[in-house]
Write a structure and sequence with these properties.
binds flavin-adenine dinucleotide; 9 helices; 5-stranded parallel beta sheet; alpha/beta; 3 domains; FAD/NAD(P)-binding domain; Enolase-like, domain 1
């Protein structure tokens, strides 16, 4: 009997790969190893409905417990893979147990970036990435009146919406000149900023953080200007970094993420990778890309599973993403980097519009606000226009 396929990381990508392997008829041994103590779950509700208490824990889980038994997926939760021996085709668990694999998928995701400043370890200072983060955050949210959020990205702004909805005094501190600067155009930033201001959120832009103050527990955030933002809860939401230590220590190529080719192959034989932890080549966007999105985690995991079974795979999808803030759904199709003009269709005043990004005549991306039909149309248009203009990538070696 040949060795099993092993998947390291039981998150969105790891689960999707296991599911795809079974759907495609792979009947051999399949071990899914995750260091969190939970069944595989979805993260987006952690900063939205689940944080608000509007969603039961059961609905977070991607598959019910019985699914793992019925599909013979050997889920090892609460189990950390300590090392990977690529040549020997083994992984070693923290317990010391060694497991051999025929093929390995690394889907280790990202972790929340820490802020290396004084006071960052005080009680009441949080990051938000896992289900285990939520109970202490909720307890703190119930107890405090003033909330400060460091970082005006998606998780920071979604958290601001929830905290403002609970009647808290919320201040967002952002180092850039506008919120969500790295992913959307000024028009979309401005719309969302006005939305937050209308809910009473204070937004401090172009502002660094000097330290976090408190004796025994956090009492405020001291800005670079010297001003103090009082807060009983501080969320550090300054991005995430890919979990690549396992791959790096095993000698796999890592450059801001685990480098894979269009078939999700790493630089080591029989090792694929998928999800937030990877950087992959995109002919569609003309560069290497690392993403943190459910679309990418799921689609790349599907592609990796197919490639592991020997199918000819070329992963280069139209990318998409969403964010929920108050009653607004922002959806983004494509990647806007490199745009030279935008066109708006609809009305920001009525909270329903589409903003298209172009480079010359080429449509790159579309942000839609409360316009799901236009989002779906945009994805279709991007897929069609790119398939006319984009040559498929030549096979690219990652070794
Ligand atoms: C609060 C929040 C809100 C989000 N909202 C959205 C959204 O609205 N829309 C959207 O598209 N995306 C959203 N995302 C991003 C999305 O959830 C991620 O892109 C997706 O979860 C990535 O899946 P993954 O499998 O690559 O990584 P993960 O889901 O992070 O899974 C990786 C798993 O591997 C485990 N692991 C790591 N190292 C080891 C090891 N050595 N041994 C065993 N296990 C290990 C990790 O603990 C983790 O459980 C959100 C993320 C967060 C945190």
């Amino acid at each position: 009997m040949s060795d099993p396929i092993i998947i390291v990381g039981a998150g969105q990508a790891g689960l999707k790969a296991a599911e795809t392997l079974r759907q495609k008829g792979y009947e051999g041994g399949l071990i899914l190893i995750g260091d969190e103590p939970f069944f595989p779950y979805q993260r987006p509700p952690l900063s939205k409905a689940y944080l608000k208490g509007e969603m039961d824990e059961d609905r977070l889980f991607l598959r019910p417990p019985a699914w793992f038994e019925s599909t013979s997926v050997d889920l090892r939760k609460g189990t950390r893979v300590a090392s990977l021996e690529a040549e020997a085709h083994t992984v070693t668990l923290e317990s010391g147990e060694e497991l051999s694999y025929s093929k390995l998928l690394i889907a280790t995701g990202t972790r929340a970036r820490k802020l290396p400043i004084e006071g960052a370890h005080l009680p009441g200072v949080f990051t938000l990435r896992t289900m285990a983060d939520i109970a202490p955050i909720r307890a703190s949210l119930e107890a405090v009146d003033e909330v400060a959020i460091v970082g005006g990205g998606y998780i920071g702004m979604e958290f601001a919406a929830v905290a403002a909805g609970l009647g808290k005094t919320v201040t967002v501190i952002e180092a850039c000149d506008r919120i969500l600067e790295r992913s959307v155009a000024p028009e979309t930033s401005e719309f969302l900023q006005d939305l937050h201001l209308s809910h009473g959120v204070r937004i401090k832009l172009g502002t660094g953080v000097a330290r976090i103050d408190g004796e025994g527990a956090v009492s405020g955030v001291v800005l670079a200007s010297g001003e103090t933002v009082p807060a009983g809860l501080v969320l550090i939401a300054v991005g995430a970094e890919p979990v690549t230590e396992l791959a790096g220590a095993a000698g796999l190529r890592v450059e801001g993420g685990i480098v894979v080719d269009e078939a999700c192959r790493t630089s080591a034989p029989d090792i694929h990778a998928a999800g937030d932890c990877t950087v992959f080549p995109s002919a569609r966007y003309g560069r290497m890309i690392r993403l943190e999105s459910v679309q990418n985690a799921c689609d790349q995991a599907r592609a990796a599973a197919a490639a592991m079974l020997g199918e000819d795979v070329s992963y280069d999808p139209v990318l998409w993403f969403w964010s929920d803030q108050y009653d607004v759904k922002l959806q983004i199709a494509g990647l806007s980097q490199g745009y030279d003009r935008t066109e708006i269709d609809g009305s920001p005043e009525e909270a329903s519009f589409a903003l298209s990004y172009f480079a010359g005549d080429r449509l790159l991306a579309v942000d839609t606000v409360n316009a799901p039909r236009q989002h779906m149309m945009a994805r279709k248009m991007l897929a069609e226009s790119d398939s006319e203009t984009t040559p498929k990538p030549a096979r690219q070696a990652v070794a």
